[in-house]
């Protein structure tokens, strides 16, 4: 049984691939900006026009929105809703699941159409799914900034003794952590 | 989640507990006391009568460690039994849990029910609550009908059995000098309890002690 939430990290290479995919998509779909949010509600990346709103709050609400809709889907006999669309008078948003861990949010206005966004989104979702599946499959080299997932940060017992796991990103930073709380 | 691109460590802390126990009050106090430059907006999805419908959310920046900005995302869940579906959703991806118990003697059953519900919901995600950052806050200590701490501890924090022989030794409670998290019962059995704090969330007593403790435990899991 995993001890806690499965967490992960991606490399600069992954980040580059994600950015290029989303830039191409935004150009093709004539959309304004794209945000990637993980399922726990944390903002992973933004591409395109920088958000003028509170992106942190937006990310947490996005994850909640998607999770609530997943449950609604189950109530009506679906596994999930892979895509959600919210239409506004001027601004609209389209949300899509990526590899069941990340949510792609696309913001667009009336300079484009829902049809074009939806059409271009399919390729972008496929490309991003490939990138993220690679990220999640890459093993469990906890805390390695060059790659791998930071999986199971709680790889030990409560008193801090650990199994034979590699040191985490904050290894040896106990004093620094203590200082934060003084 | 560690974001190497933006050099950020983001951690999710969830305040859990029975309805009207003071979870939202904890966040409101933190929101009111922390400098606006180090916190974001307090988002509350509540009913018209101020009861939490889905969650409250408050991001707080703690500082920088090893060049990484550490940001804690604080969430509360709706305490009412009725809202279990949405309560469970908030636990997804949680890094640390604060159980806010209502000290009033007549809320004993609600506390127990909520604690059981927390274990169940965590298990449904495959998370093992006994092995992750978890603290208990006994709120409303100022009320005349508050139950004695010993009773609350016996009920909500009796400790789980330690089965690993290497851990069968007293472990001091870093937050309470003279007390122990791992200890041996008169029966010979070793048990481990979680750190606990007394609080009066409306006045802020114990609020930051609780938050600091769980945040520190979360960061130590990365060390």
Task: Write up this protein.
The complex is a heterodimer of chains A (182) and B (223). Chain A contains four helices and five strands. With 182 residues, chain A is α+β, with helices and mostly antiparallel strands. In chain A, a hairpin with a 5-residue loop joins strand 3 (83-86) and strand 4 (92-98). In chain A, helix 1 (12-29) runs antiparallel to helix 3 (114-137). Chain B is of the alpha/beta class. Chain B has two domains: 2-157 and 194-220, Rossmann fold (3-Layer(aba) Sandwich), CATH 3.40.50.300; 159-193, no CATH class. Chain B contains five helices and twelve strands. Chain B is globular. At the A-B interface, helix 2 and helix 4 of A face strand 1, strand 2, strand 4, strand 5 and helix 2 of B.
Brief overview:
Chain A is of the alpha+beta class and 182 residues long.
Helix amount of chain A, in percent?
25-40%
Q: Regarding CATH, which class of the domain at 12-137 in chain A?
A: Alpha Beta
| SS field, number of helical segments of chain A | 4
| Number of structurally distinct domains of chain B | 2
Looking at the structure, the CATH topology of the domain at 12-137 in chain A is Beta-Lactamase
Radius of gyration of chain A, taken over Cα atoms and rounded to an integer in Å: 19 Å
CATH class of the largest domain in chain B: Alpha Beta
Count of runs of 4 or more consecutive helical residues of chain B: 5
Extended strand count of chain A = 5
CATH architecture of the domain at 12-137 in chain A: 2-Layer Sandwich
CATH level-4 homologous superfamily of the domain at 12-137 in chain A? Dynein light chain 2a, cytoplasmic
CATH architecture of the largest domain in chain B: 3-Layer(aba) Sandwich
What's the arrangement of strands in the largest beta sheet of chain A?
Answer: 2-1-5-4-3
